[in-house]
Amino acid sequence: MYVPDSLEPHAEGTRLRVVESGFAGLPPELRTHERHVEGWQRELGDLAEYLAAP
CA 18 → CA 28, 37, 53, distances in Å? Predict the structure, then answer.
């Protein structure tokens, strides 16, 4: 798996762009879209909490 990211200025702050690739190299049971969506929702939620902390 390869997950490059970039930060870009945005009118409301900063946009984090994440592109996940390398699915073809994963075993079939790990390729499911739902698993990755759930994982990213959790990870980005954690990041938002961290950035909002004083």
Answer: 22, 12, 22
Is residue 19 within 8 A of residue 1, CB to CB? The reply is no
| pLDDT value, residue 2 | 61
> Per-residue pLDDT tens for 10-24?
998 888 888 888 877
Across-strand partners of 7?
16
Distance CA 1, CA 22 (A): 5
Domain ranges of the chain: 5-52
pTM of the full structure: 0.59
For 52, the 3-state DSSP assignment is helix
